[in-house]
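Example record

Each entry pairs one chain with its bound ligand, S-adenosylmethionine.
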Amino acid sequence: MERCAALLVREPWLLRGRWRDEFPGYKELHLEIGCGRGRFTVETAKLHPDVFFVALERVADAMIIGLEKAMAEGLRNIRFMTQDASNLLEFFADGEVDRIYLNFSDPWPGKRHAKRRLTSERFLPIYKKILRPGGEIHFKTDNPELFDYSLGTFREAGFALSEITRNLHENGPVGVMTDYEMKFYAQGVSICRCVATFLGEGEQPAQDDGAGRTEKVDE
Ligand SMILES: C[S@@+](CC[C@H](N)C(=O)[O-])C[C@H]1O[C@@H](n2cnc3c(N)ncnc32)[C@H](O)[C@@H]1O
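Structure tokens for the complex follow.
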């Protein structure tokens, strides 16, 4: 961790509302929540040097691999933080984030722990605060029950849904894969994906068709 200190944000609350001042020149700020070993954010940051990436993970040990990779690659447009998503409002001001990635979030089956799901009604209001109007959540999971649940909570919270698919890699690999995704892909497990767009407070989405459309994945 010490070797990678340059890419680690230890006091993210000091950057609240100041990310763009501290890291100027980037067209957008993208945040991955629950980055695990960080493969997705590191590879995506390499593809998009004009975007600034923040990878958040509450388990420091998991993140070290991504941190070391980003250091070794000399990436400048990425930072990591060991924090819990419950505290996001302390780290980002209203509308400061352009895109959130939720990749293979823990499903927390059973009603008892539903509020721990990163797509639960506990977390969506937090994302709506830190996302700018028009900002997006890109969500991928191998778990169909979590996917159905999340389509419901996104709709309930007023997000507009698009790019809904239940078999993202049906015709071959699409986009940057996470560590979990590579494992599932090798096992032939279908991956679900959707994009949920925050339209702004009080804005209502047009009815989505929910019909499983697959569109281009740019990451
Ligand atoms: C199943 S893993 C997926 C890791 C990675 N996104 C991937 O696809 O390879 C889920 C990760 O989310 C992290 N996580 C779960 N809840 C979190 C929270 N509230 N705040 C931050 N990280 C969280 C876990 O520690 C774990 O590393």
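The first strand starts at residue 28 and ends at 33.
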